[in-house]
TrEMBL record:
Residues 1-23 form the signal peptide. GO terms for molecular function: copper ion binding; dopamine beta-monooxygenase activity; electron transfer activity; heme binding. This is Secreted protein. Pfam families: Cu2_monoox_C. PROSITE patterns: PROKAR_LIPOPROTEIN (PS51257). InterPro entries: Cu2_ascorb_mOase-like_C (IPR014784), Cu2_ascorb_mOase_N_sf (IPR036939), Cu2_monoox_C (IPR024548), Cyt_c-like_dom_sf (IPR036909), DBH-like (IPR000945), PHM/PNGase_F_dom_sf (IPR008977). Transmembrane segments: none annotated. It comes from Sorangium cellulosum (strain So ce56). Residues 335-451 form the Copper type II ascorbate-dependent monooxygenase C-terminal domain. It comes from the Bacteria.
Amino acid sequence: MRLLIHFVLPSATALLLGCSAEAAPGASTPTFHRDIEPLLQKSCLGCHAQDGTAPVSLASYESAKALAPVIADETEARRMPPWGALPTDECAPPRPFRGDLHLSLDEIALLRAWSDAGAPKGDPADAPAPTTPVAAGLSRTDLELSPRAPFAAAEGSDSFRCFVLDPGLTEQAWVQGYDVLPGNRAVVHHALLFIDANREGEALGGESGSYECFGDARLSETSLLGAWAPGTQAFELPPDIGISVPANALLVMQVHYHPKPGEAPSPDATRVALRLADEKPSRALSNLALGNAEAPFRDGNGLLPGPGDRGSVEFRIPAGARGHVERMRYVIDFPIPEISIYGAGVHMHRAGVDLKVDQIRADPRGDEADRQCLVQTPAWDYNWQRLYSYDAPIDELPTLRSGDTIELRCTYDNTTENPALAAQLIEERLPAPQDIGLGESTLDEMCVAFLPVVHPNP
């Protein structure tokens, strides 16, 4: 996993200019306290606070002024703030996203104008009220589960290890929050957390409590509790929603390790923190994971024809291809007539640049459109992945009905003009892009949508 982005300090000349006498700003010139500090509070100080998780603080005028040109550059390039689900002409999500960090084009222009004007301070009386950044992690931790023993991945090769975790539940429980805590972020590529109601992992894990599990967790019956990838934050639900975990169930955590070539990774012991409901909630949440179709289905859905096909439909991103698109479709079929969509998340690897998830209604009602975009990530960044939860009361969440279709459109850039892929090629010691197929390894690709859905608790 990659480190948080590091701001580069301006040149000595810029720092010296920043210390020169400051001209009084005109009425139309943006100032720190009136115009810039509110933007930093909204979109930056969650990480860039004093003693925050980011390498530099933007909590004071002095620190923000020193980095004003860098702030303007990073926001214009959409590298900061880390929020991939930007508004586009082709996607208007059905509800706003909770905790939306993105900056509008006008706000980004304001940051540039402030930097170009010499980053004036303005009147402290114009400053917004101080804010307290939300603490990282769960609001309350009831259980913290750790592997029986750390695991050291082999040097330079991808590996998939499943760790058997026993929460010791003597009766059914309802998870209302989870946080995956990687032990060695330099090698943990992603993690999936499964519910093992039949305790099959016990035999698979043996005395070590872990086992190899390339592809899937090797369980005959399971459900997805949650996932972690770089940038993912702790996941918490409101009091009236929970994820069911049966009595005596185990949890199996599948971790994908990706050590750098030539480096012997230190052992990892990734942990899981859980918050449990005090009583049975009125609604249950289930996780739908759709995508990674290797071929068309018999009904014509699954992987759709694409520009990289060679005679038959295949997932193939040719070397040197920019703007390459793969599409997949899934018809929803479940026993409950209608459920609510809590949010949406997406997953790709280094060649990915944009993923759009659409809902196609089988039977639109009232003012419902035939097609509704649920999320689009035109600023996709592998290092900053998250679930985008809709900011609406449960009864006002968008709905999904049996017979509706979910369509994924995944766009890739398999050239060295793609900085993420170029960096990965260097890391893998490859001289040029290769054809990319569907797979688990970092230089394979994926096309996945995660839809947490809410339904009445039986």
